[in-house]
Amino acid sequence: xxxxxxxxxxxxxxxxxxxxxxxxxxxxxxxxxxxxxxxxxxxxxxxxxxxxxxxxxxxxxxxxxxxxxxxxxxxxxx
Length: 78
Prior knowledge:
By secondary structure, the protein is mainly beta. Helix content is 6%, strand content 45%.
């Protein structure tokens, strides 16, 4: 089954969801961008048509599904 996984790159982010609660954790962007070398940038990823995305909150091992429509702010952690 490992051969069926889509290659991704994780980004540490803070998300401000519609109810103003800050969520720190990781999102997963495609490892290969269509228009440049390397993984997709966060701005490319947030504008992709897929509405639902997996998010792993800081300190948790399992992913929860979030809807991009309710993301107010997406900030990269440095």
